[in-house]
Design brief:
This protein is mostly helical. Helix content is 56%, strand content 4%. The protein has 4 helices and 2 strands; from the N terminus they run βααααβ. The protein has a two-stranded parallel ribbon with strand order 1-2. α1 packs antiparallel against α2, α2 runs antiparallel to α3 and α3 crosses α4. The chain is globular and about 35 Å long. The relative contact order is 0.20.
Length: 102
């Protein structure tokens, strides 16, 4: 097994201080580009992005469960924190302001 990171690209910056739905979509797109050589991760990214876009298209807020899943996925796939705690995920999810609302 290789010690090289699975990503294609530089080490990502830490999670932003403020998140909104559009920033999260951009982070999912970055994950998709950087982990393109891993079909399973790419498929997960696509599915989560589709669910998020469906919420935007419906004009609905993003449900808490979806926010939690996306945050956990980004922590592992983008920021390479596979051992993130529930508190860390909750703190990052709390930064997410709904970009679909004025």
């Amino acid at each position: 097994m290789s010690d090289r990171p699975a990503r294609v690209g530089p080490r990502p910056a830490p999670p932003p201080e403020r998140l909104d739905t559009w920033v999260v979509l951009d982070l999912l797109a970055t994950t998709r580009r950087w982990r393109v050589n891993e079909p399973f991760v790419a498929g997960q990214t696509d599915g989560l992005a589709r669910a998020l876009v469906a919420c935007l298209n419906a004009g609905d807020p993003v449900p808490h469960w979806l926010r939690t899943e996306i945050i956990a996925f980004l922590l592992e796939a983008l920021w390479e924190r596979s051992g993130s705690t529930g508190d860390e995920r909750a703190e990052l999810a709390a930064r997410w302001a709904d970009g679909a609302r004025p």
